């Protein structure tokens, strides 16, 4: 089942052996590609553009230092900088230059906290953060994670995640990132990169590109090569590459290439993706690092634009020879080394960076506590990303009087003793991920390299019990039974279920029978049943959502270590729910169409044709007229909001020519004019209810020739009762453009664009038009 992993924890002997001997790093015995039915060949783009620092003064200064440094190195030392050392305690560590006192770069997982260490925090997953729709929290999250990584002396954080984008609904890693909307992913990536790098750590945005499923993501000796994601040029630009533009614009110092193939060429040796799109069109100044074990060739990957290989020499054990015999130019090697050092200097890591204090598992070491007060932020994000989707007759918030007698059911309510038996489950190694499994206790994150290592877990049961104690109430509980006894006088039954998912395999279902029966069984005997669902990805709810005794339903996401506290804040109304879904919840699995499941192909050269183009998630539901159970962008509050006074103001200081102007040089993030704000759109949001609450106002544009509507702005505003606030959306040239595959440029259309502002993708309260 477990094929391989990215960024493995090379900590225990066992996992080390697993890495070395597992079939993930062995080569396919199939070599004849001429029989493969090509969807598209990947066009050759050579040579690799040399990084030059032209993006900004800061990059230019970094390149001056990087060039000076690299000029002092001999061939062996340059090569050493581009390879990983597996003996290190870090998940990856580039070679050092002892002669010049440079220690190499330490890379660590991951996107939701340092994995495999103690006295570090377990943050909510990327999908949970996205459900907050809060740009400030996204920034704060990035900053806090970087504080911890930097505190331990780590140079490069293996995150944030901008792909998988979530094309495959059952995809094993969709929860690591924000979900299937490129705009939302882009904003989150940009905020995270800024937050991370403002605190001096190099962000490694991943995975570049199209790593949308786990099934056959790597080559195997049993079958053959890895899956080929065959994606057309328009879809690449408007959907999958789009969010990375934000990451690059924010300065991302590193990018990780992905495992699978793209148009039959491995991503880590795909010259179109690395030399072409990333380094030419998007002006990337930093370095590309392979996903762990993702390098599948030597010369080819070097010349296609790969700069650093992880986690060990791999195909570059003879890079020195390749350079001396001319198959890889010395300029290419210099560029590899220079790009890495440029990112190092760009983040000023040469100035007073903390010593590395990553410790091998279970080896006594001094306590280095890097958590600061991040628990507060984690609790806040936990609550802000909790999505209320049903709340009959104001069941919630609970009050001392309506919740004096509380019953708690379900395996997800408490941290199970069995989940704590094996210490490696929560941080020792890669297998930590299996600890947070159905029936193995409350789910706070998903599995794989995107997982984290909680210092403790505040379970829902524990936090609710504290509240009940304070309210002088009483509790009954049963975490095991599928058909628990409900005491006749109980006022509210809280049922906790979850849906686990992990890197290295895709899910087989979006529901499970045990959990659905549990909910229905409780509801049969309890007229006030509240369901709390921790889910790594989409979880359907049809078997009980219309049950009249199910009075409230909460998607509690993957909230991290403060899970129970965040939930209690919402349950008892200390915090008004404001989270919104960052994906569509369908009525039945088939409604997701072909992309419900990963593409299954047993051939030696498996192919996944992304023929649906940009029509995934709500774009597809809108086109097909499919009615979802809960649409993208949906979430309830304890208060109500009205929308009024839409205003659209065109900025008069920018050009609205059809194409961006030709005579401007590309900087990191792409053509600079793409980021010009062309319109400022606003609306007034009034709180017409009784409690203060935050509303996520969403802007959707109907761009001619594109899906009927696409998210192109959001603003979360806090509003007091009977007061109003203004939601503001800055619409850039890119937001209004479509990709012109002939001109190979972003293009505006002389047409009418519909503008809608609403509370979700299907609750559009204000409509207007932009005429271009
Ligand atoms: C690869 O397949 C093609 C087409 O079947 C065949 O002509 C060619 O000889 C094969 N090459 C090798 C090395 O087997
Ligand atoms: C993918 O596209 C190619 C080229 O159009 C076609 O030959 C192949 O059959 C397609 N594969 C699948 C699984 O649809
Ligand atoms: C893949 O092939 C399609 C169709 O030929 C093409 O539009 C696209 O640019 C190619 N992408 C890559 C990364 O090679
Ligand atoms: C290469 O890096 C390794 C690991 O840091 C170090 O032990 C070795 O001395 C370096 N080699 C050279 C030639 O500097
Ligand atoms: C690397 O070079 C050594 C000899 O120096 C040789 O034995 C080995 O096969 C080479 N490896 C590859 C992958 O070319
Ligand atoms: C909700 O309240 C209304 C009015 O009190 C009542 O008629 C209705 O039965 C209640 N619904 C449920 C599901 O309890
Ligand atoms: C609990 O987790 C262990 C792995 O740690 C797994 O083997 C077991 O199947 C899980 N239990 C259930 C009921 O899922
Ligand atoms: C879904 O994909 C998984 C692998 O990710 C595979 O095992 C399963 O058979 C697929 N199911 C269907 C219905 O295709
Ligand atoms: C709802 O709960 C009440 C009280 O336990 C029970 O009598 C009724 O049958 C339940 N309704 C459903 C649809 O299960
Ligand atoms: C949605 O419509 C497309 C295009 O008409 C079609 O190919 C697809 O099967 C439909 N999807 C579903 C789930 O009905
Ligand atoms: C845009 O809409 C206006 C009416 O609001 C109409 O007069 C005009 O023809 C439309 N333009 C285009 C290009 O459709
Ligand atoms: C705005 O437009 C959408 C889609 O055309 C429509 O469903 C919605 O009712 C409109 N809203 C208003 C307030 O007219």
Automatic annotation (TrEMBL):
A single GO molecular function term of this UniProt record: beta-glucosidase activity
A Pfam family it matches: Fn3-like
Organism: Coleophoma cylindrospora
Pathway: Glycan metabolism; cellulose degradation
Catalytic activity: Hydrolysis of terminal, non-reducing beta-D-glucosyl residues with release of beta-D-glucose
Subcellular location per the Swiss-Prot or TrEMBL entry: Secreted
PANTHER family according to UniProt: BETA-GLUCOSIDASE, BETA-GLUCOSIDASE M-RELATED
Transmembrane segments: none
Listed InterPro entries: Cellulose_deg_GH3, Fn3-like, GH, Glyco_hydro_3_AS, Glyco_hydro_3_C, Glyco_hydro_3_C_sf, Glyco_hydro_3_N, Glyco_hydro_3_N_sf
Cellular component GO terms, alphabetical: extracellular region
Keyword annotations of the record: Carbohydrate metabolism, Cellulose degradation, Glycoprotein, Glycosidase, Hydrolase, Polysaccharide degradation, Secreted, Signal
Name by which UniProt lists this protein: beta-glucosidase
Domain of life: Eukaryota
EC number: 3.2.1.21
Signal peptide, first to last residue: 1-22
BP term (GO), one: cellulose catabolic process
């Amino acid at each position: 089942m477990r094929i391989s992993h990215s960024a493995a924890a090379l900590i225990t002997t066992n996992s080390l052996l697993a890495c070395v001997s597992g079939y993930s790093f062995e080569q396919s015995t199939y070599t004849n590609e001429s029989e493969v039915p090509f969807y598209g060949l990947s066009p050759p783009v050579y040579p690799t553009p040399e990084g030059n620092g032209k993006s900004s003064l800061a990059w230019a200064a970094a390149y001056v230092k990087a060039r000076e440094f690299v000029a002092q190195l001999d061939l062996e030392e340059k090569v050493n900088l581009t390879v990983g050392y597996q003996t290190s305690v870090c998940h990856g560590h580039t070679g050092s230059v002892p002669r010049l006192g440079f220690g190499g770069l330490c890379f660590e997982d991951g996107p939701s906290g340092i994995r495999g260490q103690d006295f570090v925090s377990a943050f909510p997953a990327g999908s949970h953060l996205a459900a907050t729709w809060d740009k400030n929290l996204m920034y704060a999250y990035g900053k806090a994670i970087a504080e911890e990584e930097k505190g331990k002396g780590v140079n490069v954080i293996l995150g944030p995640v901008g792909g998988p984008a979530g094309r495959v609904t059952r995809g094993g890693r969709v929860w690591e990132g924000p979900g299937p909307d490129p705009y939302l992913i882009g904003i989150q990536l940009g905020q995270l990169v800024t937050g991370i790098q403002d605190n001096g750590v190099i962000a490694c945005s991943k995975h570049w590109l199209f790593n949308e499923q786990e099934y056959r993501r790597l080559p195997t000796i049993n079958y053959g090569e890895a899956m080929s994601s065959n994606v057309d040029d328009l879809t690449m630009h408007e959907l999958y590459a789009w969010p990375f533009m934000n990451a690059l614009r924010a300065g991302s110092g590193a990018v990780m290439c992905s495992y699978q193939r793209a148009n039959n060429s491995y991503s880590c040796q795909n010259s179109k993706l690395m030399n072409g799109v990333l380094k030419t069109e998007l002006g990337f100044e930093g370095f590309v690092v392979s996903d762990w074990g993702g390098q599948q060739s030597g010369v080819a990957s070097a010349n296609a634009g790969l700069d650093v290989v992880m986690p060990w020499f791999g195909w570059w054990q003879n890079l020195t020879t390749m350079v001396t015999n001319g198959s890889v130019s010395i300029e290419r090697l210099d560029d590899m080394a220079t790009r890495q050092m440029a990112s190092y200097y760009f983040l000023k890591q040469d100035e007073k960076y903390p010593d590395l204090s990553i410790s091998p598992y279970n080896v006594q070491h001094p306590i280095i506590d890097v958590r600061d007060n991040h628990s507060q932020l984690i609790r806040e994000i936990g609550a802000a990303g909790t999505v209320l989707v049903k709340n009959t007759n104001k069941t919630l918030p609970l009050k001392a009087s309506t919740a004096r007698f509380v019953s708690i059911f379900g395996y997800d309510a408490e941290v199970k003793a069995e989940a704590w038996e094996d210490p490696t489950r929560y941080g020792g190694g890669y297998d930590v991920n299996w600890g947070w499994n159905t029936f193995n206790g409350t789910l706070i994150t998903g599995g794989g390299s995107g997982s984290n290592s909680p210092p403790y877990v505040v379970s829902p049961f524990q936090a609710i019990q504290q509240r009940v104690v304070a309210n002088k109430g009483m509790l009954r509980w049963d975490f095991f039974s599928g058909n628990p006894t409900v005491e006749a006088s109980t006022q509210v039954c809280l049922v906790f279920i979850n849906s686990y998912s992990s890197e290295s395999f895709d899910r087989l279902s979006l529901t499970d029978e045990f959990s659905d029966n549990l909910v229905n069984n409780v509801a049969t005997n309890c007229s006030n049943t509240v369901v709390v669902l921790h889910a790594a990805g989409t979880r359907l709810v049809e078997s009980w959502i219309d049950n009249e005794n199910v009075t409230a339903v909460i998607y509690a996401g993957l909230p991290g270590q403060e899970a129970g506290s965040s939930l209690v804040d919402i349950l008892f109304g200390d915090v008004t729910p404001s989270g919104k879904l960052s994906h569509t919840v369908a009525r039945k699995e088939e409604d997701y169409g072909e992309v419900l499941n990963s593409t299954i192909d047993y051939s030696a050269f498996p192919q996944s044709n992304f023929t649906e183009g940009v029509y995934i998630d709500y774009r597809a539901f809108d086109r097909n007229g499919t009615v979802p159970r809960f649409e993208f962008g949906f979430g309830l509050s304890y208060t109500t909001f009205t929308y009024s006074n839409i205003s659209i103001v065109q900025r008069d200081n920018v050009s609205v020519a059809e194409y961006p102007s030709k005579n401007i040089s590309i900087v990191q993030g792409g053509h600079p004019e793409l980021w010009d704000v062309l319109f400022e759109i606003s609306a007034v949001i009034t709180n017409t209810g009784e409690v203060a609450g935050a509303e996520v106002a969403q802007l959707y544009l109907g761009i001619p020739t594109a899906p009927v509507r696409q998210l192109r702005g959001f603003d979360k505003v806090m509003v007091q009762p009977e007061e109003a606030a203004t939601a503001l959306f800055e619409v850039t040239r890119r937001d209004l453009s479509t990709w012109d595959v002939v001109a190979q440029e972003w293009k505006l259309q002389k047409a009418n664009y519909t503008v809608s502002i609403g509370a979700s993708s299907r609750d559009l309260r204000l409509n207007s038009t932009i005429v271009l």
